[in-house]
Amino acid sequence: MASDTGSVLDILAGTPLKLEESSAIEEVFSTFIDQIYAERPDESYLTEELIREALETLMTSNNYQVEHNVQYKTMFNTSVEGSFDIVSKQESSVSIITICSGPSNEEITNLGIQLDTIKSSGVNNKLYLAIDLLNNIPVLSGESSRSIKAMMVDKGMGIALVDSTLIILCDNHDQLLLDEMPSLLFLSR
Hints:
7 strands, alpha/beta, Trna Endonuclease, Chain: A, domain 1, seven-stranded mixed sheet
């Protein structure tokens, strides 16, 4: 394997990573994170509104159609009240995104409701929890990480780590831990 960053990032999403590839990807992500910290002078996390704006900009630049605040009833035949923050479509693929700042216990409970609503619909759509790339510790360790891991493993939830210049889409827990290659969305021009 070549050691240049470009070849490491060219690994197809979902590819199981060898230890050296995983380490190289982790190093690249560390560089991204260092650059992001340098670009945020006050080192604050993105608000939910800024995450929403970044998702829309990055996804539309990658040919996704994006809708906001889509009611559960609009997508599925359900009596459950509520809405999805973002629904993105590309060809036949539909991704549902819930934006989260914490995640708090209330947000985790809401994710469970959304996952159950999607599953009961019988439609094969993917739910992603979108969180600021710099605020990824709660999904990797601590009390909320256990609930998130269970939702990823048992219910097929994904994670979207978001910055204004990059989205790292983890379809499963192995991608979150860099045992598999996640998808990367950069601003396309």
